[in-house]
Design goal:
The protein is α+β, with helices and mostly antiparallel strands. The protein contains 4 helices and 5 strands. Strand 2 and strand 3 form a beta hairpin.
Length: 127
């Protein structure tokens, strides 16, 4: 498959109250080892978030999601994890955890345009 990249993606979820196990899809992380690609896109729908009994403020979620973005980008201000190799960063971001921000298990596919695939998944699974 010339030009096609194997990719993995996970859905980023806000979990307003972990003990209730309710979540709101807010973003996508897309990773391709062969393309050295790791990007995320997110958007918090405040109206939907207000429907949940939420102990955290929007600013808390925004700060945590911003950390996801910095780690994906390998930013210097993303902490030590942001300096790891791309596959290790993706595995760390998608590791199972019990916190207010979680991810789905990774899924995979093939794409010849990873940016467009990220956008398509974002529209289909988040918006």
């Amino acid at each position: 498959m010339p030009g096609k990249h194997l990719y993995e993606y996970a859905v980023i979820r806000l979990v307003p109250r972990v003990e209730r196990e309710e979540f709101l899809n807010v973003g996508i992380i897309l990773f391709s080892k062969d393309a050295k690609y790791l990007h995320c896109k997110y958007q918090i729908n405040i109206d939907k978030l207000k429907l949940y009994s939420c102990e955290l403020e929007e600013a808390d979620f925004e700060q945590n999601l911003s950390a996801f973005e910095k780690i994906c980008a390998g930013s210097k201000d993303g902490g030590p994890v942001a300096q790891w190799e791309i596959p290790d960063r993706f595995r760390w971001l998608t590791a199972q955890r019990s916190s207010s921000i979680q991810t789905s298990r990774p899924h995979n596919g093939f794409s010849d345009n990873l940016d467009k695939t990220l956008e398509r998944l974002f529209v289909e699974l988040v918006l």
